[in-house]
Design goal:
Number of strands: 11
InterPro entries: F420H2_bilvrd_red/Heme_oxyg, Pyridox_Oxase_N, Split_barrel_FMN-bd
Order of helices and strands: EHEEEEHEEHEEEE
Protein name: Pyridoxamine 5'-phosphate oxidase
Keywords: Oxidoreductase
Radius of gyration: 18 Å
CATH topology: Pnp Oxidase, Chain A
GO molecular function: coenzyme F420 binding; oxidoreductase activity, acting on the CH-CH group of donors
Pfam families: PNPOx_N
CATH superfamily: Electron Transport, Fmn-binding Protein, Chain A
Distance between the termini: 5 Å
Shape: globular
Amino acid sequence: METRLDERFSDPGTEATGWAETTRALEEAQISWLTTVRADGRPHVTPLVAVWLDGAVHFSTGATEQKYLNLTANPNVVLTTGRNAWDDALDVMVEGVARRVTDRPTLDRLAAAWLRKWDGSWAYEATDNGFRAGDHDDVAVFAVEPAKVLVFGRQRTNPSETSMLSTVEFTHTSHRL
């Protein structure tokens, strides 16, 4: 993996965000946004819950949802997570190709991971094709192995200053896997 600080968009003296901090942000994210491309080329963005497991971001979708339809035509995606705060924030963008997960042992582990992460709010049962959720037995599961990860960090240089005008340092890191 190649990690580098993009000095064009980073303040002097800042350091690249490490891979461990980046994956921790993905593991702890409560909400993410998935960007797909419609058949006519227009972008489509939707919020969703995701799980980081085995070096990939995983998400689920119903077979009639727009993101599923988009993925059948074009599997290239960007999954984004972060905070919409001015300071003390880390935004992560994962670029990659979404591939369908149908391996039953992996689906079992993913269902358990979803259950743990959201305290039972997202209770999935693994099937031979994906997940079952309540009376929906056609939930498709996708994995995105990162091809490129962009990380944008913002941190107030003096935490005791609370004004929006106080100095905030910016970092822009890229990880290529």
